[in-house]
Amino acid sequence: MYGKVRKIESFERIIVMEDGTDIPIDDILSITGETFVERGDYMNIIVCLDDKKGMMFNHRRQSMDRMVRDKIREITKSHVLWMNAYTTKQFLNDHVPVHDLHIADDFLRQAAVDGYCFVEGQSLKPYEESICKVCVFNWNRVYPADQYFDLDLNSKYELESEEEFKGTSHDKIVFQIFVRKELN
């Protein structure tokens, strides 16, 4: 598409072209692809998954663990950590601050370069080209789920590290870091 802009309707978030075509600003902001990503302009993702890649059930997280939150604080201590308000609630119960926490409903769009996003049910497919690293906490069990992790880690990522630890609510949690293959 090409043409001249007639006006921008900021309240409606629409760009009106001279030929009368309306373009939603959110459509422009959601454009992804390698053309729009400079080398080094990638975000890092943190997820908690069950053995079938389940993330949530009936709009609720499957589980949570204080040791997982401590580990998230550790790996993000010199970075910005993005999440939505729902996810923030579990961190508030610990009374231990997160170094640089940013809360927004559209946190995946706002996530800064070299930031981490703790994702608990959002689709990552639209942001796939902007993801460098995926940190996975695996519960090592199957929970009921109706929302699943939607990236194929085997095709575009390689396992960088893996460790097991005992959590407060799980005897065994596996923490894996996957890094995008083309960046190594």
Sum up the structure in keywords.
single chain, 184 residues, alpha/beta, seven-stranded mixed β-sheet, three-stranded antiparallel β-sheet, 17% helix
Number of strands: 13
Mean pLDDT: 86
Major beta sheet, strand line-up: 8-7-9-4-10-13-12
**The biggest beta sheet, please?**
7 strands, mixed
- Total helices: the number is 5
Care to describe what's here?
With 184 residues, the protein is of the alpha/beta class. It has 5 helices and 13 strands. The protein has helices spanning 25-29, 66-75, 85-92, 107-110, 153-156, and strands at residues 5-9, 14-17, 22-24, 43-49, 54-57, 60-61, 81-83, 101-103, 116-118, 131-138, 147-148, 157-165, 173-180. The strands form 3 sheets. It has a 7-stranded mixed beta sheet with strand order 8-7-9-4-10-13-12. The longest helix has 10 residues, at 66-75. It is elongated and about 65 Å long. The model is unreliable at 34-40 (pLDDT under 50).
Short description:
With 184 residues, the protein is α/β, with parallel strands linked by helices.
List the helices and strands and how they pair.
Blueprint: E1 5-9, E2 14-17, E3 22-24, H1 25-29, E4 43-49, E5 54-57, E6 60-61, H2 66-75, E7 81-83, H3 85-92, E8 101-103, H4 107-110, E9 116-118, E10 131-138, E11 147-148, H5 153-156, E12 157-165, E13 173-180
